[in-house]
Sequence to fold (181 residues):
Amino acid sequence: MKNIGLLLLFFLAVNITSAQKINWVTFEEALELQKKEPRKIMVDMYTVWCGPCKMLDKNTFQNKDVVKYVNKHYYAVKFNAQGNDEVNYKGRLFTNPNYNPALANRRNSPHQLASYFKVQAYPTIVFLDENAEFLTPVRGYKKPQDLELYLKLFKNDDHKDMKTQEAFNNYYKAFKPEFQQ
Fold:
């Protein structure tokens, strides 16, 4: 009986721990999941050498409010923007033809998918709609409440009504964050 109790505690601890992590999937897995249950996709375009990318992982993607919201409303993809993955998207194969394995843990050439999504800095979070259509890249490190604005903007389709920078600025000023920092 004692062993069963310890085993139960172990499973509870594992479930509590895993409940506080974003359910990262590959790019192609997210596209497949969209076919079964349409959701928007959030792609974390990072590099292995990027300090702000590591801060985003530690401070924002570990935040319980971010984790809960992303897992409920998005398919989350973590993509090495200078890696060597092959990705099929919109009938096209994206690769990194200039990838150098000797530089795997340092700066490398940009992946074609990162270029396609207009990624020019790291980290960049790319948002795609429920049909895997490109919405926008969001550049730079974001604190949980900063990311909350974009997560809710796209989740609620509020971006569709914004035709000007002024419209976004008004949305930004009126936004009331709920996520804890």
Remarks:
- Strands lie at 24-25, 40-46, 74-80, 87-89, 92-94, 124-128, 134-139.
- The longest strand covers residues 40-46.
- The radius of gyration is 18 Å.
- Confidence is low (pLDDT under 50) at residues 3-18.
